[in-house]
Design brief:
53% of the residues lie in helices and 10% in strands. It is of the alpha/beta class and 227 residues long. Strands 2-1-3-4-5 form a five-stranded parallel beta sheet, sandwiched between helices.
């Protein structure tokens, strides 16, 4: 009788150990899925924060809709703030990376630096620091380049556009050379901007997404069911 009890107890312990092992494996698999899920973090200014247009109509919201339509299982986090500068984005990026753990980071900043006449070197350094911080956190980075009007002077205009190119080259980050291509420099530019002539109208945001999409798409995992 004693031997049978010992055998039963031993069998019970083995069953319990296997049960616990399965639970741990399940938790590990669940954690792996969470850590490898695709999350895009957008850190931008008013161009991405839907300034002056209805909620849900900006290019970031349209991006989420497109990703959902393609069943990519991608989550988009819009951390854009109207009026933000590269310094502002740099100061809050670490917390955003920690909170959302993105696989991809889109940096859309710099326009307000130019509007405020901030030093070009600071803008470039901030973009560089943000890109490197995101990459160090394991994210792929896409920079959305900006350009300023000719009235800023050729030297500043050229240096501003070149800053995005330089950061992309140094860090091997992806780059959209001009985020507002076909919007700010198109034949219907006046019709695509709000009365302040700074912020695009709702009708311009699909064009903005189309500027981002080809480059971003190459960085993302293939859509479900694609070859």
């Amino acid at each position: 009788m004693s031997g049978r009890l010992k055998a039963a107890a031993s069998h019970s312990r083995r069953t319990w150990i296997r049960h616990c092992s399965l639970i741990l494996l399940g938790c590990a698999a669940s954690g792996l899925g969470a850590s490898t899920a695709t999350t895009i973090l957008v850190v931008g200014d008013s161009l991405s924060a839907e300034y002056g247009i209805p909620r849900g109509s900006g290019w970031v919201a349209l991006l989420q809709q497109r990703l959902d339509q393609e069943r990519r299982g991608v989550r988009v986090v819009n951390a854009s703030i109207s009026g933000d500068t590269t310094a502002g984005g740099r100061s809050r990026l670490a917390a955003l990376l920690q909170q959302h753990k993105p696989t991809h980071v889109i940096i859309e900043l710099g326009g307000n630096d130019a509007l405020r006449g901030l030093p070009m070197a600071s803008t470039r350094d901030n973009l560089l620091a943000m890109t490197r911080a995101a990459q160090a956190a394991g994210a792929q980075v896409l920079l959305l380049g900006m350009q300023v009007p000719p009235n800023y002077g050729k030297a500043y205009t050229d240096a501003f556009a070149a800053a995005f190119v330089e950061v992309a080259q140094v860090t091997q980050a992806a780059l959209v050379p001009f985020f507002l291509k076909g919007v700010a420099d198109g034949p219907k530019a006046q019709e695509l901007f709000q009365a302040d002539r700074i912020h695009p109208k709702e009708t311009a945001h699909p064009l903005m997404l189309d500027n981002v999409w080809p480059t971003l798409r190459r960085l993302l995992p293939k859509a479900s069911g694609s070859g």
